[in-house]
Structure prediction request, 160 residues.
Amino acid sequence: MKTLKRRRKENKTDYGKRIKLLKSGKPRVVFRKSNKYVLAQYVVSKEAQDKIIMSVNSKDLMKFGWPKEAEGSLKSVPASYLTGYLIGKKILKDKLETPIIDFGMSRTEWKTKVYGFLKGIIDSGIKISCKEEAFPEEERIKGTKLKNKINFEEIKGKIK
Prediction:
């Protein structure tokens, strides 16, 4: 009987997926979501040792004009999109190598915050291939149906 590794049992690491990402030799943008926030990290691996070059949290959107009363929606589709847009702009600004996306153990269903995040990275100017029908609708990305209205275009305009 095969014994599973501890991190696999805890649903933290898919070792098959990880080894494929490491063999590519490219840096990764790691997407993680918690109960409150969305986290993105630019990670470079050397000999299976991960080094985080930069990190962006959806809490950083508060600096760009995210409304205080909408603080509970920092894990929504618009927050995921803007977090992806923010890390994409930082990657371009620092002239870092084009990364591959690492969603980890997240479920990658179409039209969810995972693909909203990916669309944000692509819209920032990073060339990553993905099917267009995987992305959420524009009204979901802009958050027009949220209770607390956010100034989506204003926040996006402040991110440079």
